[in-house]
């Protein structure tokens, strides 16, 4: 009987419980959905769609040299409001997509590393071409008291668009298929 109990204990110590796999899968899905929310906010030029993504005490470190570190969800949303207002004023629209290359989940904290690509579509009557810019991004998410993942840190800098297109898909990570390379 003692050998049976030891063998049973070893089996449970080495086998990942089914509920843990489901929890990991649910976390992957929830973290990936944040990127879809971001895409939807850009498409609608609606910064209020970003409110659920950011934690109240989030920090945003933008790529622009002339913009300081932004602290707090309200300040981050206000920054996006100004950006979206400029796009709306030009009667243009924008799109964004992401390709994650790495995710590290440790307990209630997750760090994502990805590329992003933003496309600017001027009004048709201007006959201006579509333009794009890309960058590298790191987000740090934490589960809040309600078990919801929210971004605590969002940092980005510029990169060549080709890096976005060259990023290979990774299992369980958000991988946007929204864009093809622009033809020149």
TrEMBL record:
SnoaL-like domain sequence ranges: 36-95
InterPro entries assigned to the protein according to its UniProt record, in alphabetical order: NTF2-like_dom_sf, SnoaL-like
Entry superkingdom: Bacteria
Keyword tags: Signal
Pfam entry (one): SnoaL_2
UniProt keyword annotation of Chloroplast present: no
Signal peptide segment: 1-20
Name of the featured protein: Nuclear transport factor 2 family protein
Organism: Shewanella yunxiaonensis
Source lineage: Bacteria, Pseudomonadati, Pseudomonadota, Gammaproteobacteria, Alteromonadales
């Amino acid at each position: 009987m003692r050998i049976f109990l030891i063998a049973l204990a070893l089996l449970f110590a080495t086998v990942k419980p089914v509920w843990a796999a489901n929890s990991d899968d649910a976390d992957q899905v929830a973290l990936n959905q944040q990127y879809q929310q971001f895409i939807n906010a850009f498409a609608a030029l609606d910064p209020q769609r970003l409110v659920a993504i950011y934690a109240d005490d989030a920090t945003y470190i933008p790529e622009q040299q002339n913009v300081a570190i932004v602290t707090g969800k309200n300040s981050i949303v206000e920054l996006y409001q100004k950006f979206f207002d400029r796009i709306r004023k030009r009667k243009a629209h924008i799109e964004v997509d992401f390709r994650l290359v790495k995710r590290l989940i440790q307990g209630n904290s997750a760090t994502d590393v990805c590329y992003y690509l933003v496309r600017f579509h001027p009004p048709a009557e201007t006959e201006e071409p579509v333009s794009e810019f890309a960058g590298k991004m790191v987000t740090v998410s934490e589960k809040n008291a309600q078990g919801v993942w929210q971004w605590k840190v969002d940092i980005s800098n510029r990169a060549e668009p080709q890096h976005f297109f060259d990023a290979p898909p990774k299992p369980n990570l958000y991988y946007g298929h929204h864009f093809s390379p622009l033809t020149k």
